[in-house]
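chain below, 151 aa
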Amino acid sequence: MALPQGPPRVPPVLQAPIDRLTHEVLRAATLELVEGEPRRRFAPVLHAGVPGRSVRHVDDLRSADAGLRADVTLALLGRATALTPRPYLWLTRAGELSTHDDDLRWLGPSAWAASALGVPVALVVVTRRGWFDPVSDVRREWRRLRRRVTG
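prediction:
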């Protein structure tokens, strides 16, 4: 894989107002976490793709190597582009909707991997309360998120 040429690009960020597809994808990612993770405390998980069609990596907190995180993100995004034409990248973790060390550990490597693949994705952090972009602080919060009933 060739390294990106030229000066580093600023990582893409979400801009308000977000488009409908992004809203639906990130709502589904939040709902997937709420319904699928029963534990209060759990390791952060990096996801690439869309909910229901994604690949994931459970963060090994003992590994503090940014290069390894960049390689992991590159591999996940590469696989996700085969699953969906417009992949998203999100980090699920416990805690509140404020920037944590885990978010910052994945932010730079994620931006590098997206740039290397030419995929315009931003890392979004998802918790049980909602989601946010740690760069732009665009966010959506819910008090009680529930699955929508159709029909």
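The first strand starts at residue 45 and ends at 50. Residues 22-141 form a domain with the Cytidine Deaminase; domain 2 fold (CATH 3.40.140).
thats it, cya
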